[in-house]
Amino acid sequence: MLSFIKKLFGGGPAVDYAALVQNGAQIIDVRTPMEYKGGHIKGSVNIPLDSLRSNFSKIKKDQVVITCCASGMRSASAKSILKSSGYTEVYNGGGWMGLRNKLN
Questions:
Q1: pLDDT tens, 19-58?
Q2: What is the torsion angle, in degrees rounded to the nearest 10, for the CA atoms of residue 32, residue 25, residue 102 and residue 29?
Q3: Which of 32, 37, 76, 103 lies at a C-alpha separation of 20 to 30 Å from 51?
Q4: What is the pTM of this model?
Q5: Looking at the domain that runs over 2-10+17-103, which CATH code has it been given?
């Protein structure tokens, strides 16, 4: 059970998010447009979780994807949706502020 929870929320080996972004990873922020407008990671793309499936065309399948949101819950769901839809390398970056700190 613990391994399932870790896998769902991105626990496990440390991920070098800065290196992923430097190598072209795309950050998808799945918060609402209002949340995104209140602050976001520069260069991230806002695709709210509830419209993720209808916006796959905005996300390249051959590109590394990092999802983020406010706390990590929606980004975990987004990671799961993307993985089950054929995106091969997807990471749950968790909350956008924490992810932003890891990128600096």
A1: 999 999 999 999 999 999 999 999 999 999 999 999 999 9
A2: 0
A3: 103
A4: 0.87
A5: 3.40.250.10
